[in-house]
Amino acid sequence: MRFFLSAFVIVLHVVSMRRYEGPSPSVLLSLTSELALAGKWPPLRERGEDIVLLAEYFAHQIAQRYRLDDVKISSSARRKLLSHSWPGNVRELQHVMERAIVMASGNVLEADDFEFSKMIEPAQKTETLNLEALEQDAIMKAISRSNGNLTQAASLLGITRFTLYRKIEKYGL
Question: For 119, which DSSP code?
């Protein structure tokens, strides 16, 4: 039910932005409810331009939350968002958008503002006592366990979300 309500709110927002040129809102809401109830919502990587619509929706919501001016997404940033595989699905997109907006220097997000998590393969795991390597490993495990939710990952690590952002940037994760 929570998923359906989230999808419903996003659909209403996209339609209200008057940028949507497709089926009528009632058809769109009907399709949304059918997909949600059937549990057959396709993965984000298979939804093409939906990625950009969702990114715009999240940009608007995040800008409001942080009391920022309206945030725009450049065409190069759109291409970068569309080229990513989105293993963390919509939640990953939401967190990537939040990080980009918080760390950006202006109101137009460029491709360089977006950084995606790099997942470490379990086969690469070696025992080390190097503190930085252990910290990087702990960060990657926390992000993986929280399915890309950086707030939950920070909580698992016992640090603030902003500290986690700084560490991700420091280590290039």
Answer: P
More confident residue, 6 or 156: 156
How far apart CA 40 and CA 47 sit, in angstroms, is: 12
Q: State which amino acid sits at residue 126.
A: T
- What number is the average pLDDT over the span 129-156? 87
| Burial label, 58 (beta-carbon count in 10 A; 0-12, 13-18, 19+) | buried
146 or 33: whose pLDDT is higher?
146
Q: Residue ranges of the domains in the chain?
A: 1-41, 44-116, 122-171
Predicted model pTM:
0.52
What is the mean pLDDT of the segment spanning 108-131? Answer: 73
The CATH superfamily holding the domain 122-171 is Homeodomain-like (1.10.10.60)
Q: How far apart are CA 168 and CA 173, in angstroms?
A: 5
Pick the CATH number of 44-116 from 3.40.30.50, 1.10.10.10, 2.40.50.140, 1.10.8.60: 1.10.8.60
Residue with tokens 């399709």: 31
Cα–Cα distance for residue pair 76/63, rounded to 1 Å: 20
Cite the DSSP H helix spans in 17-160: 25-38, 50-65, 75-83, 89-103, 131-145, 150-157
| Strand segments (E) across the chain | 72-73, 108-109
